[in-house]
Specification:
Blueprint lengths: L2 H47 L2 H27 L13 H30 L10 H27 L2 H28 L5 H28 L6 H12 L4 E12 L2 E11 L4 H18 L2 E11 L2 H8 L10
Parallel strand pairs: 2-3
Antiparallel strand pairs: 1-2
């Protein structure tokens, strides 16, 4: 690869990183505004209407604010260029952010479950809910579902697992608002115990989602490989590169939403070192262009045609003895 090609590649990579960071920042600030308004309204109306479910939902919205700022922090740092201490860049800030989001959901979910259980142990302490709580739950459901769809569309466009996690966090809020609404309806219909039951269900939903995010992010931080479909696609790109006769020991690991890979490629043994290097550079370029691979390290192995190996291994003809 010439110096000019290397500079162009780095420039394209930096431009894409900046574009992803800007999109993440915009969508997250929208989420901050929505969640701030909702959390204040839900908690205040929930206290006034004596709805534990609505207050729990408001607290859940508050956790979204913390999650949003975690995303903004990670997005700011993950776009930094590679340096001496981080030669592969800072993309793993996104994996760490997803892990923190998962832990946050686990803590909030556990607290909500515990609070709901305490209420269910003393059903006589459950108050009748005011009807305004139902209107607030409906408004929250609509706002959170719209926020989820907006954030998920952006996350898929820029292929950010961190933003996908944050979008599904918003969807968990929409689901929890639905459950809370059902609980409030039950309370208004003369079954007050349904309100803390709704809060309990919301807490369990959040626990499940938090575990999923934290577990996936932990595996990514431990260098988990990409799935077999993506691995096969990378292998196919390498095998269709002119001059490559075979591929083996293809290994991958996650780096944020990008991939670091290394592979052994087989080229004709009779080629010069320069020719083999040119093939390796071409293979790397094709992989970086077609896949979300941040860097590909190649090792060149010599390959000989089987028929030539057989011919070279055959014994030479025995010369006739002098008469």
């Amino acid at each position: 690869m010439t110096p000019t090609e290397f500079e162009d590649e780095n420039e394209n990579s930096s431009h894409f990183a900046l574009e992803r960071a800007a999109a993440a920042s915009r969508s997250t600030w929208v989420s901050v505004a929505v969640n701030l308004c909702l959390s204040i309204a839900q908690i205040c109306i929930g206290i006034y209407a004596k709805s534990q479910g609505l207050v729990a939902d408001g607290i859940h919205s508050l956790t979204d604010l913390v999650a949003d700022f975690v995303v903004l922090f990670a997005s700011h740092h993950s776009k930094k260029d590679a340096d001496e201490n981080h030669p592969y860049g800072h993309q793993r800030f996104e994996n760490a952010a997803s892990f923190i989001l998962g832990l946050l959901l686990l803590v909030v979910g556990a607290g909500m479950v515990w609070s709901a259980i305490l209420k269910l142990e003393s059903p006589e302490s459950i108050a009748e809910v005011h009807s305004i709580a139902l209107w607030m739950a409906g408004l929250a459901l609509l706002a959170k579902e719209c926020l989820f769809r907006y954030m998920l569309a952006i996350a898929k466009r820029i292929k950010s697992s961190m933003l996908i996690a944050n979008a599904w966090h918003a969807r968990s809020d929409a689901a929890s608002s639905f459950v809370v609404g059902v609980g409030i309806i039950g309370n208004l219909a003369g079954y007050p115990i349904l309100d803390p039951i709704a809060a309990l269900i919301v807490g369990l939903m959040i626990l499940k989602m938090g575990w999923g995010f934290a577990w996936d992010a932990l595996h990514d931080l431990m260098d988990r490989a990409v799935d077999e479909i993506e691995l096969s696609a990378i292998r196919e790109t390498l095998l269709t590169t002119p001059g490559i006769s075979g591929v083996h020991d293809l290994r991958t690991r996650k780096m944020g939403d990008m991939i670091i890979a290394d592979v052994h490629i087989e080229v004709e043994a009779s080629l010069t070192v320069e020719a083999g290097h040119t093939i390796a550079v071409d293979a790397r370029r094709r992989v970086l262009e077609r896949h979300r691979v941040l860097n590909l390290m190649t090792h060149i192995d010599p390959w000989r045609r089987p028929d030539l190996d057989h011919a070279s291994a055959s014994p030479s003809a025995t010369p006739e003895k002098a008469g």
